[in-house]
Write a structure and sequence with these properties.
It is built from one helix and seven strands. Strands 1, 2, 3, 4, 5, 6 and 7 form a seven-stranded antiparallel β-sheet that branches. This is (S)-ureidoglycine aminohydrolase cupin domain-containing protein.
Length: 109
Amino acid sequence: MAEDNNSNPNNLRITIERNPSQSRLSELNIKCWPKWGCSPGKYQLKFDAEETCYLLKGKVKAYPKGSSDFVEFGAGDLVTIPKGLSCTWDVSVAVDKYYKFESESSSSS
């Protein structure tokens, strides 16, 4: 896999885990995470911290800023969005999700 993209240091990737197992979800303690939802539409989002979210329902195309590519995810997906990513969410089906921000105060070098 050629993940070696030095031309763009801000090549932040959204990673998607499709249909994670129940044991994986309980290991993450997802049911204790806060919830967030939105109706269909377009949203400009900037992530100042890494976010992990699990979609209970919905369908989203996320277009990273400055890219014509998009990633698509929806109900049942566990999605990790890297810190520093700006993207547009094109929501076609209303979203209901659990989410968690990583608070990495340890990396203050």
